[in-house]
Design a protein that fits this description.
This protein has 14 helices and 22 strands. By secondary structure, it is an alpha+beta fold. The longest helix has 18 residues.
C-alpha cells in the first residue's frame, strides 16, 4: 500500500489513540472483502439456504461475502440483475432504516417517496428499492451525466417497476417542496474509507480537500432539505473517517436546519463504532472501521426533519397547473403523451399499468403513480420511469432491455429461445448469434438457465442483436464457462 499522508496518520492517531490506531493502520494492509446482495425478485433460494454455502453479512438481508473475487462481467446472472456487487459496510443502511420505514404501503394513505440523491452506480438504490414497500416510489438521482447512465443501466437490470432515474443537481429538488418521505444522501467525500480498496484515493487526499468536501456536503444538504417532508428522514452517509465530514456535519444539520439524530439499531457482535468526536460522544451514529468490522470505512446517521406538518402534495393539481403552462409552450420538456400500446400485452400483473411516451420510448407506469411520474418528467431530467417497454420504428415495435429484465414480463408475450453460456456471452458482447432452425422469426426472448437476458430479432440465418450498445461487454477476454456465486 502507498505511504499514507502524514496529516491523515496524525488525525487517526488523535481520534483512536495510539494502540487502536496501530490496529487500524495494520488493517489497511489486508485485502478487501468481496460481498454481494441478491435480488429478492429474481432469486428463489432463501437466505438460510444460501448461508449454508456463503457467509452472510449480518446487518443486511440477502447479503453475503464471497470467498474470492468472481469474474462478474462474464456472469450472465450478474448482467441480468440477479445480484449486485456492493461493499458490505454500506449495506448497513438496511439496519439504520428498518425501524423507521413503513412495512407495507397500505399502512400509509399517500405514496411513500424516497430519493437517493447521489445514487450512482446504484448499490444503495437497488438496496433501498428492495427495502421499500412495493408500492412506494424511488427516485434515483445522479448529478454527473456519465455516471447517471450507469445508474440507469443498473436500475433497469434490478427490474423494479416503481423507480425513476434522473440526472439533476441537488438544488433542482428545492422546487418540489415537501415531496420526499426519505432522502438518502451518500455525499461526495474525501474517501478515506477507500484507501485500502483504491490506492489512487490516497493521492487525492489533503486537509484542504477535506475542508472543501465539508463545504460541498453542507451545500448539498441545504439544497435538498426543502424537498423533505416535515418529519421526513434524511440518511446521511460518507465513506470517510474524519469527524469534520461526519459527526460535525450531522450536528450542523441538526443545529442549522432543524434535524434530530435518531437512534440506530446495532448488534454488539457487529463491532460497529460510535461517535469519535470528543465533544459529541452521545451522538447516535454508526462507524465502520476495518480493524473491527469486515468491510471498508463507512459512516452514517439518520436524521428526522423537525418541522410542523403541512398538507401533502397534490400531484393532480400540480400536474394540471404544469399542463396549462406547457400548452403555452409546446416545447416544454417532459410533455408525455398516451401510447396506443396496452401494457397488458407484455406484463403479468393484477395492478393496472398505463403506457405513456415522454419521448420516443413507451413506458409502463402503474396507474397509482401516473400523476407522480408525469410531475417528475416536468420538473426533472428523467432518464426513465417505470418499465421501458420499447420504441416504435415505423410499423415495428422494438422491445427494450428493461422489459426483458423486468420480473413483470409475461414470458408468453414473446417466443423464447434457450442459449448456452458461450451464446449468452456473445449476446452480451452484442454480437450476432444463430438460433436453432425451429425458433420462430421475429422478436425472440433469450433465456440462459431459465432466466431472461434480452431480445433478438430472428431473421432465420442469424439473429440481430437488440442488446443496448452502451451496455455491451467490451473485453475480448472471457472464461469458457463460469461457476455460479453460490
Amino acid at each position: 500500500m502507498k505511504q499514507l499522508p502524514a496529516p491523515f496518520i496524525k488525525q487517526m492517531a488523535s481520534l483512536l489513540g495510539e494502540a487502536e490506531a496501530k490496529a487500524f493502520f495494520d488493517s489497511l494492509a489486508n485485502e478487501s472483502s468481496i460481498s454481494v446482495r441478491l435480488n429478492p425478485s429474481k432469486n428463489t433460494l432463501s437466505d438460510e439456504e444460501v448461508s449454508k454455502i456463503l457467509k452472510a453479512v449480518p446487518w443486511a438481508s440477502h447479503a453475503f461475502y464471497l470467498p474470492e473475487r468472481h469474474p462478474f462481467t462474464f456472469d450472465p446472472a450478474f448482467q441480468a440483475g440477479q445480484y449486485y456487487v456492493q461493499e458490505a459496510s454500506s449495506m448497513f443502511i438496511e439496519s439504520a432504516l428498518k425501524r423507521y420505514l413503513p412495512h407495507n404501503q397500505e399502512a400509509i394513505s399517500d405514496t411513500f417517496i424516497a430519493l437517493d440523491l447521489c445514487a450512482a452506480p446504484g448499490g444503495k438504490s437497488t438496496h433501498l428499492r428492495s427495502l421499500l414497500p412495493d408500492d412506494a416510489w424511488l427516485i434515483s438521482n445522479e448529478v454527473i451525466r456519465s455516471r447517471s447512465q450507469i445508474l440507469a443501466e443498473n436500475m433497469m437490470k434490478w427490474g423494479h417497476p416503481s423507480v425513476c432515474v434522473s440526472n439533476n443537481d441537488p438544488s433542482d429538488f428545492s422546487r418540489m417542496p415537501h415531496l420526499m418521505d426519505l432522502i438518502v444522501a451518500d455525499v461526495p467525500c474525501s474517501g478515506e474509507g477507500m484507501f485500502r480498496k483504491d490506492e489512487s484515493s490516497i493521492d487525492e487526499w489533503s486537509s484542504a480537500h477535506v475542508n472543501l468536501c465539508v463545504e460541498r456536503q453542507r451545500r448539498i444538504i441545504m439544497d435538498v432539505w426543502p424537498s423533505l417532508k416535515p418529519n421526513g428522514l434524511l440518511l446521511y452517509s460518507t465513506c470517510t473517517y474524519n469527524i469534520e465530514e461526519n459527526e460535525r456535519n450531522v450536528q450542523w444539520i441538526c443545529d442549522e436546519l432543524g434535524g434530530e439524530a435518531l437512534e440506530l439499531d446495532m448488534d454488539d457482535s457487529w463491532n460497529i463504532s460510535s461517535s469519535l468526536a470528543p465533544e459529541l460522544p452521545s451522538l447516535p451514529v454508526a462507524r465502520f472501521m476495518p480493524h473491527k468490522t469486515r468491510g471498508e470505512g463507512f459512516f452514517c446517521a439518520l436524521i428526522r426533519k423537525q418541522e410542523a406538518r403541512v398538507e401533502t402534495v397534490n400531484y393532480e393539481a400540480l400536474m394540471n397547473k404544469e399542463l396549462k403552462k406547457s400548452r403555452k409552450d409546446k416545447g416544454a420538456k417532459g410533455n408525455s403523451k398516451s401510447s396506443s400500446y396496452n401494457a397488458s400485452q407484455w406484463l403479468k400483473t393484477s395492478v393496472p399499468y398505463d403506457v405513456i411516451s415522454p419521448g420516443t420510448l413507451s413506458l409502463a407506469v402503474s396507474r397509482r403513480h401516473l400523476q407522480l411520474a408525469q410531475y417528475l418528467y416536468h420538473n426533472l431530467k428523467v432518464y426513465f420511469a417505470g418499465i421501458v417497454l420499447g420504441e416504435s420504428k415505423g410499423k415495428n415495435f422494438i422491445p427494450h432491455q428493461s422489459l426483458a429484465l423486468s420480473p413483470l414480463l409475461d414470458d408468453e408475450a414473446f417466443p423464447n429461445a434457450k442459449v448456452d453460456y458461450n451464446q449468452a456471452i456473445a449476446y452480451l458482447r452484442r454480437e450476432a448469434i444463430t438460433l436453432d432452425h425451429d425458433v420462430p422469426r421475429g422478436i425472440v426472448l433469450l433465456k440462459y438457465e431459465d432466466n431472461a437476458i434480452g431480445f433478438v430479432k430472428n431473421i432465420g440465418n442469424r439473429a440481430n442483436n437488440l442488446y443496448p450498445q452502451e451496455w455491451r461487454i467490451r473485453s475480448s477476454y472471457g472464461p469458457e464457462t463460469i461457476k455460479k456465486i453460490y
